[in-house]
Design goal:
The protein contains three helices and 58 strands. By secondary structure, it is mainly beta.
Length: 893
Amino acid sequence: MGKTRAMKGDLSTMHTTRTIGLRAVTAVALAGLALGGALAGAIPAGAATTPGEEQYRPAVHFSPEKNWMNDPNGMVFYKGVYHLYYQHNPSGNTWGNMSWGHATSTDLVHWKEQPLAIPTDDQQDIFSGSVVVDKNNSSGFGTATNPPLVAIFTSAYKDASPHRGLQAQSLAYSLDQGQTWTKYGQNPVLNRNSANFRDPKVFWYDAPDGGGYWVMTAVEALDHKVLLYKSDNLKDWTELSSFGPANATGGLWECPDLFPLAVDGNPDNVKWVMVVNINPGGVAGGSAGQYFVGDFDGTTFTSDTTDPVDSLPAGTPLAGFNDGSYGGWTVNNEPGNWKNGPFADTPAQGTLAGQNQVTGYAGAGLVNSFNDGDWPLGSMSSPEFTVGSDYINFLVGGGQHPRISDKLDNNAPAGDLLFNGFEVPDGSTLADAGWTGTADLEPAFQPATAGGDYFIGAKRINTFEAGGAPGDDRQGTLTSPAFTVTRNFMSMLVGGGQRAADSGEVLEAQLLIDGNVVRTVSGDNAGALNWKGWDVSEFAGRSAQLRVVDQAGGGWGHLTLDHVMLTDQAAVPRSDETTVNLVVDGQVVRSATGTNSEVLDWASWNVAEFRGRQASIRIVDNNRFGWGHLLADEFVASARPAKPRLQGYDWLDYGRDYYASVSFGNMPQNKRVMLGWMNNWDYANLVPTSPWRSAMSLPREVGLTQTADGPRLTQKAASQVDKLAAKSSYSEKSARSIAPGVHPLPATASGDVQRIDVTFAPGTAAKSGITVLGDGTTSTEIGYDAATGEVYVDRSNSGNTGFHPLFTSVDSAPVTVDGSGNVTLRIYVDRASVEVFAQNGLRTITDQVFPGAGAGQVALFAEGGTARVKSLTVTPLKPSMFSAALSTVKNSR
């Protein structure tokens, strides 16, 4: 696979790999086509068709009626109307066909979707940018009496363009208040002959001498630089300066913004804020936004908040890899590759051939398993040592592939192979082996000899290759001849796609007993097949059939199946890990992985329980594909844990789902209101929503306030959001204790569209707080961890979390209790998201969640001691989006 940029914000495809039939996510819309006839127990109820009634549809956040959305673009206030443009796929529900969608509002909360503003064409995709009100008609696109709105956007040029492969800045203008747009005939207006120069944010700078000019901030994404330009007419640009690299550089820099704010409202104390969004490499993993506070003199931004390079933690070095050798470590490199990969015979000295820049390591050498690219597999182990400290600190980077089992090979378990592993004689098909089927899955089309990875033998079932022309839109059923269940488990290799129960589509292998579906299994939206299976002990001795059902279209609309077996033991999944592990008595007792970043950062293991015991460190690279490598350096035995560098930087939000955030232009009263994309590139294409995918955050008014560390951002929902408040449904004004355990609040506190204001004192509790969107089994936990001094959102048991392995998370932000020992939270709950503002907005956490239908219970909790709730108010919010539909959906109680 070449080094092509698969999607805006995605760095993973920029690493050289060798792949065998890996299927990429396409931008085709999910078709939602139904198979003729009923499949017993197979087809879920159809998804709601009225916009606003769908499960997970936000009530007070903007989401498009249908199709894909990502970055907010061109946000501007003009003549009483707020304009929100955004990255949009007008043709499908995954990333692609990038164009500018458009919505308008008179109050920032009631949004009306408008016709597509700036569409893709055969020459270019329309990437992110901004809109300015050219009041003085400096561009000449309008007149003095009808000045233009001017959009400055990134042209991502396609193969048909003479600028193919490049990203450059272009203009379009509107003379009808942002409704229709005309592209400038001499685009691009700023071209650096770069493939990663994008996301222009333009503002008017009032110079101290009374003059002024337009200033553009844009990024060289791979270089971690914000470039500043000036112009008098929006067409001709002169470079002013650059900023960066600084602080977080673990991924692409994107979507910059630069603006002034008065500290605590004092006009005599104005500082400038530089926003830089980053993916991956965010504080919670994947996508995030960081900011810097400093000064801008019209030419150069100077940061006051760039962190210095740290030193090694105090302690006893265990390994540093700085003398040109591995120092007695045992290295196992997979034979038969182009190079002696993944580790070679000696440490790397930094970045390897074909790799993006590696930073964050210390000294002259490090472990870097990118030797020969992502493809080779291997491991390396340290000599044994005696654990003599409470912590082991080390630097880690590279791929985010956690350890999931001890199984590193793809060997089949012991048992009985069914259907001969689909290895029918050449020239024959599954029809000759007694299989039946429908539509594109007629058995005469199977087995396939293409597609997937980690299959066994030469042949397998692959519904991508079924029917006529291969593709994800091939659909049908394929049913095996009968077999007898003779062992307790069925194990099989499964790959390809998956579909959520509410998608209206079915994509799975099914076990049939007496014609009824009793077990199902799907892929993981990945080309690699892995071992999965079922406990079938209750069906011992009974006749069964295996049925493959593909009722799915669009990206990952296929299933791959191989090597179906009856076994005595449950299937053990292969661990496609890139990990650093601590081994004690032959068992892995601690494990860490990277964050899909070429920047190493500190990780720590608490090893106090193993003091005095023999241990070793094992580094494993068992992944061949995107980010299939690991970085490690400087293992130190220490008395205290090392603090990850990421935690010391300044972040707009500490959750997983606040990205590409920038501010509105031309705001009344010079207010600074920001809006972010409420998603994360780690799983953005797979969140279980249909027919739309993604929402925007609530609009946030931001300010600067003086703290012990200097001026820092505070954020609060724009005042218009709180005008949606209905009468409070539940309130506690007297303090009371929260005993250990979970304590549901009365039904009047329940709801899935509401604001919750709570102040509590952690007291003796190790953890305490509130849960929302509960159903008695699952909920989203929002609390304070006294040991770490952090507010957190735990969505590990929030409902549907299985659509991507990186979605399950506990996201936390450092928070200091106030002078009375209290933590104060304002929480906005909106059906499929929580936005948490802690301690008057000094910290925020934004996370998507996908609770079960009807979930809305609220509870207080404490762990390990007693906390105390000081005040609590629950306020339902009136729907502002798709109001006609949502007005019939009452706040659940």
